[in-house]
Every structure is written in C-alpha cells, then in structure tokens.
Amino acid sequence: MILSIESSCDDSSIAITSIKTNKLLFHKKISQELKHASYGGVVPELASRLHAIDLPNILEDTKPYIKNLKAVAVTNQPGLGVTLLEGITMAKTISIVQDIPLIAVNHLKGHIYSLFIEKREIMPILVLLISGGHTQIIEVNSFDNMKILATSLDDSVGESFDKVAKMMGLGYPGGPIVEKLAKEGDENRFNFPVPLKESNKIAFSLSGLKNAVRLKIEELGGASKIKRRDKADISASFQKSIKLHLIQKSKKIFKNSDIKDFAIVGGASANLYIRKAYRRLCREFNKNLHTVPLEFCSDNAGMIGRYAVEAYKREIFTNPYEIDIISNRKLTAGTLL
Ligand code: KG4
Ligand code: ZN
To answer: Which of 205, 216, 225, 258 has the fewest CB atoms inside 10 Å of its own CB, making it the most exposed?
Structure first.
C-alpha cells in the first residue's frame, strides 16, 4: 500500500492505495473552503495553519495501515509554498521513521491520474486540465511522456470564476456558485468577448473577459446595487464566453490530433455546463470523452496515490533528506510535464 498526501492549496487530504489493485482503501479530505470564504480567496498563511491541524487528524485514522506501507507519496509542486511544506514535512517524517521510499508527485500529473483512480490507464489521451491554478491541454502519451499543447497566458478558468463571484459578492469558491446562478440567467443578455477569438494562437486567456465583467458590474451600479436577476445574467453570459473560448481552442487541437480519447480534469471540470459542451464536441470529432467522478475533480490525495502507484512500479523515488518544493517553473506550451 501507498500512503499519499495532498496539501498544495486549501484541501488537506490523505489516501491509502493498493499497489496491486489500484483500489482506494482509505480516502479522507478536509476542505478549508468555508474558512477562507470571508476573504474571497485562499489566504496561504491560514491554509498552512489549518493543514498543520487537519493532516495529523486524518493521519490518525490511517494507523491500521501504517505497518503495511511500501511507500509514502506527496504533492511537491506546483502549489502554495507554505501549504506544500506541511504535506512534505509529514511525508518526509513518515519516510524516514518507517524507512520506506518517498515519492514526490507533480500536482498536475495527479489531476491527470484522477482519471485512473481504481481503473487502468487509458493512453494516449488528450487532457484538458481546468483548475484554480491551471488551464492547459496536455497530450499524455505515457507515464513519462506528457506534453503541454496549450496553456493560459494569464488567469485560469477556476480563478476567473472565483474572481467574478468575488466581484459580485457571491462568496468563495466561485465556480459552483456562478454555475448554479447561471442556470437562472439569460446567457445571451451580455455580449462578453470570447478571448483570442480572432487569433490563431492555441492558448487560453481569461483576464480580458474578467475585466469586461468588471466593467459591466460597474456600469450596473456596482456589486451592492445590482439585482439578483442581473447577477444571474452576468454569470450565464460569462460562463458562455468561457465555454466558447475553451471549445474554440480545443477544436483547433482536435483537428490536428489522431488521439481518440479526450478527458477533462481539475476542479472546474465539475462544471456540468462545460461538460455538456465537450460532450457535443467529442461527438462531432468522434472522440471518447472521459470525466472524473465529482468527488475527485477538486484536489484530493486519491489522485496523488494513483500516480504514485505507477511511480513505485518504476522505482522513481526521492531522497527524504533532499526533497524540496519547486513551484515557480513556467509551464509554457511545449513543456514536458
Ligand atoms: O483542482 P482544484 O480543486 O484546485 C487547483 O488545483 O487549483 O480547483 C479549484 C477550482 C476553484 O477555482 C473553483 O472555483 C473551481 O475549481 N470550480 C469550478 C466548479 N467547481 C469548482 N469552476 C467552475 N465550475 C464549477 N462547478
Ligand atoms: Zn488541483
């Protein structure tokens, strides 16, 4: 069994995964969302302190498994430095005290492997990763051959949902709130721009759209003045622009790729409106669409454990006395993950 730890942002999570069967034998997550809600976003220092309380509490529940562990895995990048360190310190300690190998897991690869929790890998596969930190399309050819085909030049999809929700005083995290409110709204009322629409660039950009939403809110009198009806119409129109943007750029990649399988992963992949648009696109291009069960879309240790099983089989281990965080590497298109 492998014990895996995730603490890259505001979710404290630990899982135990069977190396032989890929089965998730234990999985627990404590989300800090409510604790950050009043700030309209994650406060790193607060997040780090909460991990310091929650991770040991979850670890307590894994006691029956500890003697059977073959390795311990942890997210080491990318993420918030101060929160990553909480998980890393715990993993290093377990590795040293139990004398078992340590596996460092890239969080983005973890999201990709959320597709394969309790399942076998499907490869090659094109993966759209939409989370609070990233918006990318990755060509996953094998465990050790993953290439970023497109990436965001500025904000990520999840982040832009969070910021738009904040602008309207709707709370955090913004994604589920905006998606829900959008159901009551008219998506054709506001003509927000579709980012990079006239550009041939295969990339994403969300900051211009976010600004257009900001200007519209100001025009309508600001967050405190606008009515629920207007907020719903803004949410729906904003979500529609994001969808059109994602689909337009994905289409360009689909046209140039023979890969038959396509997946959406990451926190924002829980958005059913976006999923529906991809269902249509995949039908048009004759691709198989894969999605992740809702409980594993947002950050969790199950996905870290699933990746770690593959790393374990290949004996890709890290020295617990040396492991560090490398969270600021720039991930441009063409980068090998
Ligand atoms: O994958 P995740 O848990 O963390 C990162 O790795 O960043 O993603 C969290 C992000 C947040 O920005 C949240 O607002 C967004 O995912 N999100 C959504 C939805 N549910 C969560 N965005 C759009 N629609 C949703 N239903
Ligand atoms: Zn994530």
So the answer is: 258
Quote the domain boundaries for residue 86: 2-117+296-313
pLDDT value of position 334: 81
Q: Which residues of 146-167 are buried (b: 16+ CB within 10 A; e: fewer)?
A: bebbbbbbebbbbbbbbbbbbb
Q: Tell me the CA–centroid distance for residue 101 and ligand 1, in Å.
A: 32
Residues 84 and 227 in one domain: no
Residue segments in the chain with a per-residue pLDDT below the cut of 70? 326-329
Taking the model in full, what pTM does it have?
0.95
**328 within domain boundaries:** no
Claim to verify: residue 271 and residue 194 sit in the same structural domain: yes
Collect all residues with Cβ–Cβ distance below 8 Å to 22 and sequence separation of at least 6: 116, 117, 118, 119, 120, 306, 309
For ligand 1, say whether the CB of 9 is within 6 Å of any of its atoms: yes
Element (H or E) spanning 88, and its range?
helix 81-98
